[in-house]
Amino acid sequence: MSACLKVVRWLLVWALAGIVPALTTTAQPAAPPKALLPERPVRIWLPGEPMTFVYTARAAQTISLYATSLPGGQAVDTTLQIFAPDGEPLAFNDDLVTGKGDAGIENLRLPTLGDYIIRLDTFTRGQTGRVGLRLAVGEVTAFVPVQESAIILGTSRLGTLANARPTVFLFNADTNEVITVTAQATRPTSPEVDLVLQVYSPGGQPLPNGYDDDSGAAVGLGERDAALRGLRLPEAGTYRIEVSSWFGLPAEFRISVQPG
User: 196 CB contacts (<8 Å, ≥6 apart)?
Assistant: First the structure.
């Protein structure tokens, strides 16, 4: 008997005796989709493959859905797709705001009650990272471009966050000027909303030390307010401050830009 035949014979004997696993395996059933509830945002680690969620509509209604790349890690270019209870695709989105990479589907009319499947993925397959997913019921304001407002060093202003979009402020500074920037939630207040600050250079690049989302308590604000203390600006020009919130939650806030 040849060596190959002996190997095959012994493999069969061992398999029948339970010493080695059988040569065929049973496919594992797919995990059921996770339930998504209105205004109950979830933080997700995208593992490099699509994830599915289910939203149970009790009647025909209008919803909006947002998938936001969360700060503190590699940016994720998300995509969203929604399927009707009968499996028909209803809507797809890659970038709610062109060039931002966050997906959003707004004012989608669900035609009937039932279970709607939500598919969360990335534009570039295999991307991993942290994502916030939020679903809202009811009409939202139609898309308007992000508005930019000026703020003068040594002053503060009120601002509003809506529809999962940042609010932008522009200010002028000299080379090596040192500033402190704070963003304090006023309605709702911290910790109900978690504010985020990001400062960009005159050339449009995020400053290496220009990000914060939880340092407010160090300057007497709420624990989820944002504060950048002693930020040194490397060049003269017009800087850009973006104020946003985790999960894109709506909020009113006060921003302050002070010397030192």
Answer: 71, 183, 211, 212, 213, 226, 242, 243, 244, 245, 246
* For the chain, domain boundaries: 34-137, 148-259
Q: What is the H or E stretch that residue 5 is in?
A: helix 3-17
Q: Which positions ≥6 away from 152 have C-beta within 8 Å?
A: 171, 257
Q: Which helix (H) or strand (E) holds 237?
A: strand 237-245
User: CA-CA distance, 248 to 58, in Å (whole number)?
Assistant: 25
Question: How confident is the model over 145-166, as pLDDT tens digits?
Answer: 566 789 999 999 999 888 667 8
Full strand arrangement of the beta sheet holding 226-232: 155-161, 251-259, 178-187, 226-232
117-137 pLDDT, tens digit per residue, is 999 999 988 889 889 899 989
Tokens representing residue 217 in the block: 């308590």
- Residue matched to tokens 């065929």: 24
CATH of 148-259, one of 2.60.120.380, 2.40.160.10, 3.40.120.10, 2.30.42.10: 2.60.120.380
Is the Cβ–Cβ distance between 157 and 223 less than 8 Å?
no
Q: Encode burial over 13-27: b for 16+ CB neighbours within 10 A, e otherwise.
A: eeeeeeeeeeeeeee
Give the pTM: 0.57
